Each structure stands twice: as C-alpha cells, then as structure tokens.
From TrEMBL:
Residues 59-148 form the 2Fe-2S ferredoxin-type domain. It comes from Aromia moschata. FAD binds at residues 389, 407. Mo-molybdopterin binds at residues 715, 746, 858, 1001. CDD domains: fer2 (cd00207). Keywords: 2Fe-2S, FAD, Flavoprotein, Iron, Iron-sulfur, Metal-binding, Molybdenum, NAD, Oxidoreductase. GO terms for molecular function: 2 iron, 2 sulfur cluster binding; flavin adenine dinucleotide binding; iron ion binding; oxidoreductase activity. PROSITE patterns: 2FE2S_FER_1 (PS00197), 2FE2S_FER_2 (PS51085). This is 2Fe-2S ferredoxin-type domain-containing protein.
Length: 1230
C-alpha cells in the first residue's frame, strides 16, 4: 500500500516533471542522471557511474572519499547520521575528529570537491563534518587527513615533517589539520594572509598557532625567506591523486527511510510543489543546505522530511544589473541565516544587519508559487511556515552613499557579535545629508546620539553582555562612523584615529635558542616522534579505538537542580519515574546509581594527595549513568529533567556566610617600613577558566578474564586504577590501565577523569560487556571543574623613592564544593618569589562555594600568585607615576641577582627602552621567578632485543602533547649511544610503571628522563664487562653477545624526590607585551610579545619552544577572552563554542619572539635542563597589564581626577576594557 506521504510526493513531482516514472518500495524512482565531473584529463575507473542501474543507485548513496568510491546503503543510516559519524564509524577514518559537535572547534573539518549547480564547475571548500548529514554528501568528493598519505608514503607532508616544523607541540595534529587538506588543488595562488584567514574555524589549545601557521605559510607564493629556505617546494605538495571524482546531479530523487524521508530537489517549482504537498499534513520538515544552523540552535525534535535544496539553481544564482544585485537565498546559505533570524529574533545575524543597512528586500514564495517582495523588517514579522525565501535583492548605490559596518566580537574571528552596527549615509556635493540608515544588531535602532542615550533600553539575558555596555558601545560606533567619513581637516588631531579600525598584518615569529651538536641527539631540535602519525591520522586516541562485539556506551544522568540541592530519591520503579521512561527508549540497556555500586561511592579514595573522598554520584552533578547500544541513545536517555546557592567568593563575603570560609595561614612581616609617602589600595579578582582540551573526558573499559582493561583519558593512571578498584570492591591488580596518549588535558584529567573512568568501569563490570564513555562538550563544561577563582584585597605603603614599606593582602581561593586539588602553596611560591617581601602581611583563606570542585589547570596557583603580585606592582607604579619596570627593579629581592641579569639582557634584546608608549598603545614588562621541584615518583622500564639491538621503553608519565616521549627517546639514545631510530616508546601502563604519580606541574618530563638515565646506567653497567672482552663491537654485535652470555637486557628504575640529585631550582623569565587599543570599541590587538625564559640547557629546543608559545597563548585567553558566565542558580551558561572563546589564530601576537638564554646550564637539573610547560603561562599577565597602560591615558583624558588604574575583575574582555575607558557621549566631538 502506498502511504499518503508517498502519494503526495509522487503527485508533486509528476505535476511539475510530467514523468512516467513511479514510486515503489523504499526508493523514489524518478528521472535521475549522474554525470562524473573531472578537472583532469586522465581517466579514473572509480569515477565512472553507470546510469543504467537506477534502482540500485537510489537505494544507495554514492560518495568518494580520498579518491575512492564508497556506496552508502541508505537503509543503514538516517538523516541524523553525520558525515563525521560515517567517516569514523563506518569507514574507520579516525583522523577526522570531533569535539563540540556544533562546528565551533574545527576538529571535524574535511575538504570537499563538488560540482557547482549553476556553473557545473568543480568547487573546493571545507565543511564541518559533524553538522553535515551523510545524505547531503551524495556525489561529493571528500578528502580527509588520511588522504595526505601515511607514515610510510613518500610525500613532503609525511617524509619530511622536520623540514616543515610540523610538530613542536602538536602542530597539525588531526584535530587541526583537516581544514587544510589540499591534495586536490593547486596552491600556487595562496598567500600567507589567506592562510591566516582560513584558520577562523579552528581552535588549537596547545601550540599557540604560530608553528602551525608557519608550516602552512611555507607553501604560499609570498612565503618569506626564513620559511622557504627550510621547506619543500610548493610544486611537490598535493600530487597524490590526479583524478577527482565529483558527481553532477541533474534530476530529483528521494529516499524513504522508515518514518522519515530525504528529498533531493533540483528545480524551484518542484520545491514549491513539495512544500505544498505537506501543507496541513502535520508532517514536520526542513529545507536543508549547509545545516550549520544546528550548531547554534540545537534541533529539539527529529523531523519527518528533510528537503535538500543545495542544487536548486534558482536559489544559488546571482544576477547583476545597473539597478540591483539579486542573490538566490541559497547562495552561501544566506537564506538559512535569515531564516534563523526570522525564527529566533535575538540571533545576532551579520547578514541581516548588512542587508537591512543597504536597504535590501527579500522575495518570499508561498505554496501557490506567488512571489511577495518585502523589506527585511517586514520579513521578520512573517510566519514562514510553508513559505520559501527565494531571493535577496540589493539596490545599487552610487558614490553619494557612504557605507560602513562594525562587528565587535570577543575575539578576532569565528565569534558572534557583542554588538554590530551598519551605517549608510547619502550626501550631496555640498555635504548635506539627504538620507541615513542606522542599524544595530543585539540592540535597538535610532538616529541621534542624544536620542540614542535616552531611548536605547537593551534587553538582557545571560550570558549576553550587560545592557549599559551595549548601549554605550552602540553610541560609540555611531561616533566612530562619523569620524570615518568626515574629512580629516575637520577633525581635531586627538580624534582622527577614532575613525580607524585595527589593522592586522600577517603575523611573524622568531625563536632564538642554542644547541650543542656534540651532544646530539640530546639538545637536537626535532619534531615530536608522533608527529607523522598525528598528521596522517594514524595516531590512535581513546575515542578512536574500534568498537568491540556487544559494545555499549554510557552517559551521565545529571541532576538539573541548583547547587546545594539534595537529591532525595531517583524514581526507578513507578510508571512516572524518569528512569522507567529512559529504560523504555529503544537501545537503552541499564541505569546505575549509587545503590548499584559494590564498593565505595567515591572516585577519589584517600591517599597522601587526596584529602576528601568525593562521591561518584552526588547532588548537582552526575546522579547515575545510562548505558545503551549507541552513544547518541545514551545521551538522549540521560537528558533528565531550594535554597539560594553560593556561587562566588564575593557572594560569601557580601552575605557574611562564615561557615563557607576556612582560614589557611597568615604570613607576618619580618619588619615594618616607616617612611610611607603613598598609600595604594585595591582589589584583585580572577575567575574560572575552562581547560578546553580537544579530547573531552573519556574512557573505554573492556572486561577480561583477569579483570578489566581500562583505557582512560587520564593524567594519573594510579588514581584511575585505585578509584575503579574501590568502586567495584575488587583488588587493584584486577584493573589493567593503559594510556598511549591524550588529546590534551592541562590538569583537568589528573583527578577529574577518575569520575568518568570509575563510572565506565562500573557499567562494564556490572554488565560484563565493553563500555565506552565520552562527555559531550556541554556536559564536560558543566560537570568538570575549572581553574580556581581568587579574590584579594590589598593595601600598600610606598616611600618617595618607590620602595614598598608595607603590603597587606587578604585573599580567598575558591575550591568549590571540595577540598581536593589545593593550590595555595603554589600561589605562595610565585607571589613571594620576585620581590623583597619582609614587610608584607598576607592572610590566606579558602572559600567553599556551591559550584563544582575547582580543578588543577596549567600553572595552578602559580599564575594567580604571580598575576596578583604583578597587578599590585603595576597599580602602585601607575599610582605614583613611576616607570613600572624601574619600580619592579627597585623592589626586586636582593637574592634575585640571576633574574636581574636576565632582565638587563632582556631590555637590550627586546629594545624596551627604545619603544615609546604611544597614545592608544600599552607596554608592560613582567619578570618571573618560578620555583620547581620534582616531588613525585615515575617508573621506567627499558628493554633491549638481542635479534637486532632495537630498544623499547615505557614510563609512568603520560604523553599529552608536551613531548614527554620525544625527550625520553632523545635521552635514551644519548645515554646508550645509539640512533633514535632504534628506539620505540611504548604506551604507558600500570604494570611496567606501577604506582607512578600524576603527570603535570611541568616536572614529569624531567622526572621520566631522570628515570631513563638511571635505567640506562643499569644497562650500561651490565654491558660493560662484555664490551671489555670485544674489540670495537657494533651495538648489534654487543647486544647479541650479551644475550649469549645471559646478561639481563631489561632494566627498571624509578625517579623519586628522594634521589639526592634532584633538587629544587628556580625558573626565571621576563616578558614584554605591547598592545594597540581601539578606545571606541574596547577591542585590542597584541602587536608584539618578547619572551625570554630560562630553560637551562634544553633537551629538545623545538619541543620547548612549542610549550612556551602554547602556554603563553593559553594564558592570553585566560586574561582576555575566556569568560565563564553562570546563571542565578549556578548553571554554567558559557558551555559551548558558541559562547566560550579561547584565542584564535588571529588573536596571537603579530610579532612573537621567544628566546632561551645561551650558555645557561642548570647545575642541579636533569642533564642541566629546566622544566618549561607552565611558567610561560604566568608571563601572559603582561597583556592585561599592557591594556591597563593603554587605558590609563584615556581615563586621565576623560577625568583628570580619576584613577588611571582599574582593578582586575575577571578577564580583560572587550566589555571590561570598553567600560573602563569611561565613555561619555558628551565628549564625542570632532
């Protein structure tokens, strides 16, 4: 029997196409032609698609991936199946990653060749595979990272990564490389600026972008000599496949997929009839083009019908004449953007703003194929149900029109507007204004400044910027526009620059370090040993592991209740119970909560380092887990749906909740200064920062005969093992932990991952089946803690020479609802590290808000301590009108002669004294002392194989991208005197490195390398007697002889804080940051950063350079753009890439210079080196201090009596900077 839906669709097609084809079975069979499209003359059998077997073609999808044809059986996928899912789960192309699942991180990007529906020519572009339905891909030629080749192929990309500096930290690893898969197009016309612009959709948390950009810039036509001299010729790149397969679709078709349908439309009239056929039917449908809208607004319900309109020529055609420009609404999916604005009026559409500003109109077609022309404002009021947005018509503008628009964003690229504005003015030859159009996004529209001030009443909904900021910014943008179109001769000198926007040239960077060839491979600048595997997609991460038979997936059930709420009961049995409804969902296998735990309900069993046993399932966080046959089903089933919570330190202080405070310690001054001329008071307030690791928290657990094999994304294998054993009440030797690598961590996976791994282990143990669990980004940001917030209140007395006579500081550290992961000791190290502090009084306290437990994060405690201290120094210097660097030198500790030497070297190298602090620019120089000691244990095992002398090593650290395996290999090769190629680093596991400590705090690489040295010394000592009996043997001959003589060729060792060779030392650093400020917008750009860090004799300079750059940019985000906003009930509102903004590629310093001092060995360091991973983060406080230097001149100009300084109150965002410029529209004059 033919369903009503089929009849309607058949009638709609027959009415317009007059075809004799019929609809039968699962597939609609209509006139359908497939024409292969190529841009090369050579023939490819894979490209030929026969049109005779139409029935088979319409039951299947045809796509091409990396030059090979693939047939997708339509009945085995759904419209919700994304290209990302198909590539990873079906084709097992795991090089294409996923993270945010909303198109905001760039992990999922692939390259596409497709036939343009209008021109028929091949076009190449990038898509977010996590957003694109597999059905949209019919006929596409798709290229993933695997298409670049593999570790054994001979291409410039894979054969010579060292020439392209592929991977100082994690350069071009699969999370970042996919957008730039270029094997199928010539790069001859690509410029360095285009490369930088193309990274807008990619977030990198580890490298700081500079090294990635340099790698790609080497392929550009305008590559600078310092790049072209080191890299392969552009002609050698991308010649793997001369045959590009892209199918040209010319006729409509559709698929019947159970209760759903996918329709491909080619003609606009067909589209109208299809929409008409569903009018009043009750069927839900959507017109699909780019489908990026679901990255902004999640789809609430599944649809009945999906109508693919990408190939409708009328919707993508562009017509230009002397009167107007007419664009098909599907061109660039402009129509989709406008339809989002129609449905969600608060959507900050730049497209709408531009079109409304220039006076564009739209043409809407109803189900009777009647066209309705209307303005954009009229369009917003139209109910677009069963209507089609067909065209956008823009009027021609002559030279009497003056147009400009502004988009003020939290970062340089890939962010929606805080406020956007468009201005169009028409003037005659006498400069008389004839007409004006002013359009604001995210705010109301008006014309005159006085009227704007009185009438603008912005609405407010968190996490949007505050209304007063948006109102004042709207007025400032109008003033900026007026300045931009006014002849310079009519503007005062002080106001001319106000009409300009920040101009960013192509960024550059230099790296200055020394090596010792006599020690190679030690100190040799090499890429990470995993670089090739990561850049080809061969490196396996935890979520890349293939599914096993009977594979199950788990998801946390979160308590959607306010912090401090108490969960009394979870309904399991009653008919109205949440769990009962979840278990009724197809594919759901089980639900577990705390009553199902055989052992302890904790993922932090007490030990020396963990003082509190935190519950595995508890209030305001996970209350249980759902287990299902797919991740998607588990997440769907887990989506369950008081007293006022305490959310911040200031909440506690203002409400006087003393039981939420714990006194930590008081440091009394050793003496009292007596000559106080100036008194300076202030506050310092910094908040959370999210780790933003590209691999979210995850774990795989597989039941085995000897227990459980666990693959956690953990920085602490020992905790993963012991926590799971405690939860399951089984011996620890039943838990087998293996960790090859993590996709980023930054401290979040030291303790917090055991929450995920213990829950996964519980499900696998109870069900006796393999279980996977990974947290979606929003869950990850809600459940997992963030950097510790800190609030300080200080008062300082200074004499006439700028010497501090006394400093009283009372501060509070927010630990959230737990006391684990305390960082106060680390704060004291940097807070007291640089300056004379014998007159300082310090009162340290711990605050316990109702928020998630605060969490270790790169440079925990250290960055807050140094930032608070340096903010105080900058504040005092500014208040007494003293040069900030000179003030710091005067107050520097007499014990810091080494630091003073570095400061003097730095001033000369960075030309500090020659760089004037010009108006609207700010410069800040920050010194640093970062104490460090190796305080943990790390096991190491090294085995030598007699057959060929090859070596394998494993250790108790975890490779997170910091290059620990590379350094361990270099040290091993150096000690044994063999080539690096003979050594293989194996995954870390809890058998060969039992009881090893956490990886973090910068010292793990050193600790592991020390363990490698000890193990090598043991082996060399065993080899020594045999070597003495041989005459100049080769390594292979020596090892074989030792084997013959029964010499034990495996050695174990452990780096320990009790080793007398491992001593405390200080890491020194100096950094100067220079910024340029746009006063009228609050935006800034970092013009230049010069960073000197004392790394001793670096074991691996390029690895260390990458660590420095990545840490600094991560700190830049903490201090400028990464703002966590919570609702009144404690919910994290900035929990997506849509509203949480780490720095992008065009936020990094335009000039970024890093130097390691030469001839600078560390006498107590491992092989004379120093740790490097965290100290540079601390130096990034120089950026918000430079912003304050630039703002100071503005504040002084606005009000001579106002303080030039303004306090730290979270990150120095655009909003924070703008509001502290003290704008008053009455000062907006020519």
């Amino acid at each position: 029997m033919m369903t009503n839906e089929k009849r309607k669709f058949k009638h709609a097609l027959l009415k317009t196409r007059k075809t004799k084809d019929h609809i039968n079975g699962n597939v609609g069979k209509v006139n359908f032609a497939l024409q292969p499209k190529r841009s090369f003359k050579s023939k490819c059998i894979e490209c030929i698609v026969h049109t005779s077997n139409l029935q088979d073609l319409l039951k299947d999808l045809v796509i091409f991936v990396n030059g090979k044809r693939h047939t997708v059986t339509a009945s085995e996928v759904t419209p919700e199946t994304t290209l990302n899912t198909y590539l990873r789960n079906t084709l097992q192309l795991k090089g294409t990653k996923f993270m945010c699942l909303e198109g905001g991180c760039g992990a999922c990007i692939v390259s596409i060749n497709r036939c343009n529906p209008v021109t028929g020519k091949l076009e190449t572009f990038a898509v977010n595979s996590c957003l694109v339905s597999i059905f949209s891909c019919f006929g596409w030629d798709i290229w993933t990272i695997e298409g670049l080749g593999n570790s054994t192929s001979s291409t410039p990309h894979t054969e010579h990564p060292e020439k392209i500096q592929w991977h100082p930290v994690r350069v071009l690893h699969p999370w970042h490389d996919n957008e730039h898969v270029w094997p199928q197009k010539s790069l001859g016309e690509v410029t360095m600026k285009q490369v930088e612009n193309s990274f807008g959709g990619n977030i990198c948390r580890c490298t700081g972008y500079r090294s990635i950009l340099s790698a790609f810039k080497c392929l550009c036509v305008d590559a600078t000599t310092n790049l072209t001299g080191r890299y392969p010729d552009i002609e050698d790149v991308g010649k793997q496949c001369d045959n590009m397969c892209a199918i040209k679709l010319s006729m409509p078709f559709y698929f019947k997929l159970g209760t759903k349908s996918w329709i491909k439309v080619m003609e606009f009239d067909d589209l109208v009839q299809i929409v008409k056929s569903f009018h009043g039917s009750g069927s839900s449908y959507m017109l699909i083009a780019g489908n990026t809208g679901k990255g902004v607004y999640k789809m609430e319900n599944d649809l009945d019908v999906y109508v693919d309109i990408v190939n409708v020529k009328e919707l993508v055609r562009c017509d230009v004449n002397k009167n107007h420009v007419s664009l098909g609404a599907g061109a660039g999916t402009l129509g989709g953007n406008l339809m989002m604005k129609n449905k969600w009026k608060n959507f900050p559409s730049d497209v709408f703003l531009f079109l409304e500003t220039v006076g564009a109109q739209v043409i809407v077609v109803d189900i009777n194929n009647l066209e309705h022309t209307m303005t954009l404002l009229e369009f917003l009021q139209v109910d677009m149900t069963d209507k089609i947005l067909k065209k956008i018509v823009m009027p021609a503008l002559d030279e009497s029109h003056f147009y400009n628009s502004y988009k003020i964003m939290p970062r340089a690229q890939n962010a929606h507007a805080l406020v956007n504005a468009g201005f169009l003015l028409k003037m005659d030859v006498k400069y008389t204004v004839k007409s004006v159009r002013i359009v604001y996004g995210c705010i109301n529209q008006s014309l005159h400044m006085q009227i704007l001030s009185e009438e603008l009443v912005p609405d407010f909904e968190l996490p949007d910027p505050k209304p007063q900021f948006r109102k004042n910014l709207a007025i400032a943008l109008l003033y900026k526009y007026i300045l931009s179109i006014t002849p310079t001769k009519h503007i005062s000198k002080n106001h001319v620059s106000g009409g300009n926007i920040l101009h960013r040239p192509v960024s550059i960077g230099t790296q200055d370090f020394d090596t010792n060839k006599a020690l190679y491979p030690l100190s040799q600048p090499i890429p990470k040993i995993e670089a090739v595997y990561q850049t080809t997609g061969e490196a396996e991460y935890i979520t890349d592991m293939p599914d096993l038979p009977n594979q199950l997936f788990a998801a946390f059930v979160l308590a959607k209740a306010t912090p401090s709420s108490k969960i009394l009961k979870i309904k399991k049995e009653k008919s109205d119970g949440i769990v009962k409804r979840a278990l009724a969902l197809g594919g759901v296998v089980a639900f577990f909560d705390k009553y199902d735990i055989p052992g302890k309900n904790t993922f932090t069993p007490k030990d020396v380092f963990l003082s509190v046993e935190e519950e595995l399932f508890y209030h305001s966080q996970p209350v249980g887990i759902i287990v299902a046959t797919s991740h998607e089903t588990a997440e769907k089933a887990a989506d369950l749906g008081k007293k006022k919570p305490v959310l911040t330190i200031r909440d506690i202080l203002e409400r006087g909740i003393t039981d939420k405070l714990t006194h930590d310690r008081i440091v009394e001054p050793k003496r009292q200064g007596k000559n106080v001329k100036y008194t300076v008071k202030g506050t310092f307030d910094v908040s959370w920062q999210y780790h933003f690791h590209m691999e979210t928290q995850c774990c795989n657990v597989v039941p085995k005969e000897d227990g459980l094999d666990m693959y956690p994304s953990s920085q602490w294998m020992d905790l993963s093992q012991n926590a799971a054993a405690a939860v399951l009440n089984i011996p620890a030797n039943k838990i087998n932990v293996v960790v090859r690598r993590l996709g980023g961590a930054f401290g979040a996976k030291i303790i917090r991952n055991s929450l995920v791994s213990s829950a996964t282990a519980l499900a696998a143990y109870k069900l006796k089946k393999p279980v996977k669990m990974w947290l979606p980004l929003e869950t990850n940001m809600r459940v997992i803690g963030k950097r510790h917030p800190l609030f300080g209140n200080y008062e300082a007395g200074v004499d006439e020479h700028g010497v501090i006579q006394g400093l009283e500081n009372t501060f509070y550290y927010d630990h959230g609802c737990s006391e684990n992961e305390q960082v106060t000791d680390l704060l004291f190290d940097t807070y007291f590290g640089t300056y004379e502090s014998d007159t300082w009084y310090t009162n340290s306290n711990l605050a316990h808000t109702d928020m998630h437990p605060s969490c270790f994060m790169r440079a925990p405690g250290s960055v807050e301590g140094l930032a608070m201290c340096e903010a105080i120094m900058e504040h005092i210097a500014m208040s007494i009108n003293m040069d900030p660097l000179e003030f710091r030198i005067i107050n520097m500790s007499k014990k810091r002669g080494v630091l003073l030497k570095h400061v003097r070297e730095f001033k000369k190298w960075a030309n500090v004294e020659e760089r004037e602090s010009l108006e609207e620019k700010g410069l800040s120089v920050v010194p640093m002392v970062f104490p460090l000691a190796i305080i943990f244990n790390y096991g190491v095992i090294i085995s030598i194989y007699h057959s060929d002398g090859s070596v394998a090593l494993s250790h108790g650290g975890v490779e997170i991208g910091q290059g620990i395996n590379t350094k361990a290999l270099q040290v091993c090769a150096y000690k044994l005197g063999i080539p690096m190629e003979k050594i293989s680093v194996k995954p870390s596991n809890n058998l060969v490195a039992a009881n090893s400590s956490m990886t973090g705090a910068s010292f793990t690489s050193e600790g592991v390398c020390w363990g490698v040295i000890k193990a090598c010394d043991i082996l060399l000592e065993r080899l020594k007697p045999i070597r003495a009996t041989m005459e100049n043997p080769t390594w292979e001959e020596l090892i074989q002889k030792c084997h013959d003589e029964s010499v034990h060729l495996t050695a174990t060792s452990m780096a320990s804080p009790k080793d007398p060779e491992l001593k405390l030392y200080d890491i020194y650093g100096v950094c100067a940051s220079e910024i340029e400020l746009d006063v009228l917008t609050g935006q800034h750009q970092v013009l230049r950063v010069d960073l000197l860090e004392d790394v001793g004799d670096s074991m691996s300079p390029e690895i260390d350079i990458g660590q420095v750059e990545g840490a600094f940019i991560m700190g830049q985000g903490y201090f400028t753009s990464e703002q966590i906003v919570t609702g009144e009930e404690g919910e994290v509102l900035t929990n997506r890439t849509w509203n949480y903004k780490p720095p992008g590629a065009k936020d990094i310093p335009i000039n970024f210079h890093v130097k390691f001092p030469r001839n600078n060995p560390n006498p107590v360091g491992v092989l004379k080196s120093k740790a490097v991973g965290e100290p540079p983060f601390c130096l990034s406080v120089s950026i918000p201090l430079a912003i304050r230097q630039a703002v100071a001149s503005v504040r002084e100009e606005v009000d001579k009596n106002a303080s030039k300084w303004y306090p730290f109150d979270g990150p120095s965002t655009v909003e924070n900077t703008f509001m502290n410029c003290q704008h008053d529209y009455r000062h907006y004059t020519l």
